[in-house]
Amino acid sequence: MMILAALVLMAAIALAPTGLMTDARHADVAVVLGNKVEPGGQPSPRLAARLDRAYNCYAASGYPPIASSWTAPASTPQPPLGTPAPTILAAENVS
Q1: Of 27, 36, 73, 74, which shows the fewest CB atoms inside 10 Å?
Q2: Domain segments of the chain: what residues?
Q3: What is the rounded CA–CA span in Å between residue 16 and residue 32?
């Protein structure tokens, strides 16, 4: 077990500088990782903060379209597939 832990640590030490020194590249979509959605369909504070940050980045510099991995309860109306993120956020009064 100690050998495995040592190998994982060595791999992390070897890979970390590569990730830190690599320039960001253009992406086709920005993904917002999901979190809890309240029973009424409202995002949890953590998810709301993630969505706010994604929207602010999008609005400030034209990041690519935003995709979120969360799902709302089945009783919550969903926007049509392909609806732009700013339209969804505006409809939800997210600023």
Answers
A1: 74
A2: 28-95
A3: 23
